Amino acid sequence: MSSRYGEFPGARPRRLRTTPAMRRLVAETRLSPAELILPMFVREGITAPQEISSMPGVVQHTRDSLRKAAAEAAAAGVGGIMLFGVPEVKDAVGSAGTDPDGILQAGIRDVISEVGDTVVVMSDLCLDEYTDHGHCGVLDAEGRVDNDATLERYAEMAQVQADAGVHVVGPSGMMDGQVGVVRDALDEIGKQDVAILAYTAKYASAFYGPFREAVNSSLKGDRKTYQQDPANLRESMRELALDLDEGADIVMVKPALPYLDVLRRVADEVDVPVAAYQISGEYAMVEAAAANGWIDRDRTIMETLTSIRRAGANMILTYWATEVAQRL
Ligand code: PBG
After folding, report:
1. Is 279 touching ligand 1 by the criterion CB < 6 Å?
2. Which residues constitute the domain of residue 142?
3. Is residue 217 annotated as involved in ligand binding?
4. Which residues have C-beta within 8 Å of that of residue 28, sequence separation ≥ 6?
5. Is residue 127 a part of any domain in this protein?
6. Is the CB of 37 under 6 A from ligand 1?
7. Which residue's CA lies nearest to atom 6 of ligand 1?
8. CA 50 – ligand 1 centroid, Å
9. Is 67 within the bounds of a domain?
10. What residues make up the catalytic site (predicted)?
């Protein structure tokens, strides 16, 4: 049919956008609770949950409130929980990280006794929560992060976390060889079934800011000698090849939104599941803008998560996991 304007438009993509039902029908990307992972902080020696001022709505949990929040996440259908421990005492080598009764290990036991096998329970495997200098490893005489000495600490951490019953460990310190060392340490004590979620492409990002408050970090300076330069993409492909070779079961890109190109490259490359971590600063940015009335909070949250999925993530760590799972 022709109009007085001629034959065009010959195609009308808008037809598929006419109603909510039509848009839902043709949506190429969907979110479901099972692929959301909730990061949680458990702090030693507190009697009430502590608010994190730069992450409104997120708290440092007591052991008790951790159990309750984990049960709530499970009830909402969240697929996983990632636990971070905040110890009372920090020291140069991060002793609390390898104490079988340390706060993270206690939190793992608590959460598993609460949710059993209904949710995948994961733990952060890194020293920065436990060291008094705030670095992700132990330091050498010159004050540099000592890669190989740190690997020995990670091996021990993997074993105590596995002994506490965790299902998945997440080595996040960006030390060379960490995945292989953790795999060996787990296998050595018969924990072949504990999986490794590797922080494969982890960038030295300013967006980690609020997390430092969340774990009471005393870090001065930055992590640029071990985390990746935001300028680099090819470097992530190298980290990916190494992690897969060393035995990573799931690979992760972090942060998420500023690195969607990295996520897409990784997702195109691999035949293992791909995770993305929507980190503290991404959370804070949306919450702050929404609190000012500058953006629509709920729509923005869903748009960021949808975009991360669209870019290739099979699963997403997000501080909004429970809320979004309830909404879905
Ligand atoms: C390291 C670790 C960090 C985060 C997760 N694991 C901090 C860092 O590398 O500086 C950041 C998570 C976030 O910002 O939400 N233990």
Report:
1. yes
2. 30-327
3. no
4. 310
5. yes
6. no
7. 172
8. 19
9. yes
10. 202, 254
Is position 25 within any domain?
A: no
Q: What percent of the chain has pLDDT over 70?
A: 98
- Enter the tokens of residue 261: 């190109």
> pLDDT of 312-324, one tens digit each?
999 999 999 999 9
CA of 193 to the centre of ligand 1 (A): 25
Ligand 1 centre to CA of 208 (Å) is: 6
Nearest to 324 by CA among 47, 42, 57: 57
What is residue 285's three-state secondary structure? helix
268-311 tens-digit pLDDT: 999 999 999 999 999 999 999 999 999 999 999 999 999 999 99
- What does the pLDDT read at residue 116? 92
Q: Does the model's pTM come out above 0.90?
A: yes
Consult the annotation and say whether 212 binds a ligand. Answer: yes
Q: Confirm whether residue 319 is marked as ligand binding.
A: yes
Contacts of 21 (CB under 8 A, 6+ apart): none
In a domain, 18, yes or no: no
Specify the CATH number for the domain of residue 91.
3.20.20.70
Residue nearest (by alpha carbon) to ligand 1 atom 1: 172
Task: Please tell me the total count of domains within the chain.
Answer: 1
Q: What are the pLDDT digits (tens) for 155-202?
A: 999 999 999 999 999 999 999 999 999 999 999 999 999 999 999 999
